[in-house]
């Protein structure tokens, strides 16, 4: 499973990097994105962070202990609070601030360089490596799974925002993302709600959105 997640992450990162080079991103750089209170520039920066920040986190000293990947979401304020919460507003502000310090071309090139480094280091990461993500640690493949989900979700957000078809992600990337989002959705809405949404239109809840 370790190799599957790593390959899926690297594949999704490559798709995101290609999307950042799309002329439509530069053309709509200052326009609002499909996400409230996020410009295309800020969203693009946030997408790129899933590649560039991964290099920095893997280069940092490891954490001592790890939590389960689901706990990363159930204990995280940006998941457990609304889009107008301090945590989520802070994510958008950082994205906008960092985007203001770069250009579309520079961001795409920086992401390409980070991806090249990740292709070099990710395959050799020990399976028991614990990545320090700030408030806690995650085992390296769980950490990459969280970044993979961000790439898949925000890759779609960015494509929709700039009016281009959403690029196709590697099947393993979408499968891992669906699995993770289903687990988070079951925690948020209850497992029965997820089962009904996926199997019974007449009893499906209004939403089972995980995020």
Number of domains: 1
Quantity of strands, as a count: 2
- Category from helices, strands and their pairing: mainly alpha
Which H/E pattern describes the elements? HHHHHHHEEHHH
Q: What's the rounded overall pLDDT mean? A: 93
General shape: globular
Give the CATH superfamily.
Answer: dinb family like domain
Instruction: Give a quick account of the main beta sheet: strands, pairing sense, barrel closure.
Output: 2 strands, antiparallel
Could you walk me through the main structural features you see in this protein, from its secondary elements to its overall organization?
This protein has 211 residues and is mainly alpha-helical. The protein has a single domain, classed as Four Helix Bundle (Hemerythrin (Met), subunit A), CATH 1.20.120.450. It contains 10 helices and 2 strands. It has a two-stranded antiparallel ribbon with strand order 1-2. Helix 1 (2-20) packs across helix 9. The model has no long low-confidence stretch (mean pLDDT 93).
Tags for this model:
single chain; 211 residues; mainly alpha; Four Helix Bundle (Hemerythrin (Met), subunit A); two-stranded antiparallel sheet; 10 helices; 65% helix; globular; MDMPI_metal-binding; DinB/YfiT-like; metal ion binding; Mycothiol-dependent maleylpyruvate isomerase metal-binding domain-containing protein
Give the helix/strand layout.
Elements: H1 2-20, H2 23-27, H3 40-59, H4 69-74, H5 77-80, H6 86-100, H7 104-121, E1 130-132, E2 137-139, H8 140-162, H9 171-189, H10 191-199
Antiparallel strand pairs: 1-2
Domain Mycothiol-dependent maleylpyruvate isomerase metal-binding: 17-159
Protein name: Mycothiol-dependent maleylpyruvate isomerase metal-binding domain-containing protein
GO molecular function, one term: metal ion binding
């Amino acid at each position: 499973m370790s190799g599957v997640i790593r390959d899926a992450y690297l594949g999704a990162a490559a798709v995101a990097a290609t999307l950042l080079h799309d002329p439509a991103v530069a053309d709509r750089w200052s326009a609002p994105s499909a996400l409230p209170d996020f410009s295309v520039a800020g969203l693009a920066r946030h997408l790129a962070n899933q590649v560039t920040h991964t290099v920095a986190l893997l280069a940092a000293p490891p954490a001592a202990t790890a939590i389960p990947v689901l706990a990363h979401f159930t204990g995280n304020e940006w998941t457990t609070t609304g889009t107008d919460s301090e945590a989520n507003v802070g994510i958008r502000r950082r994205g906008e601030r960092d985007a203001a310090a770069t250009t579309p071309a520079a961001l795409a090139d920086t992401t390409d360089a980070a991806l090249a480094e990740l292709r070099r280091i990710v395959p050799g990461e020990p399976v028991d490596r614990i990545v320090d993500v700030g408030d806690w640690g995650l085992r390296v493949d769980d950490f990459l799974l969280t970044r993979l989900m961000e790439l898949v979700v925000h890759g779609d957000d960015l494509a929709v925002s700039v009016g281009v078809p959403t690029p196709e992600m590697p099947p393993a990337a979408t499968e891992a993302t669906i699995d993770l989002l289903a687990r988070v959705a079951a925690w948020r809405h209850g497992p029965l709600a997820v089962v009904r949404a996926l199997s019974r239109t007449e009893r499906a809840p209004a939403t089972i959105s995980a995020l």
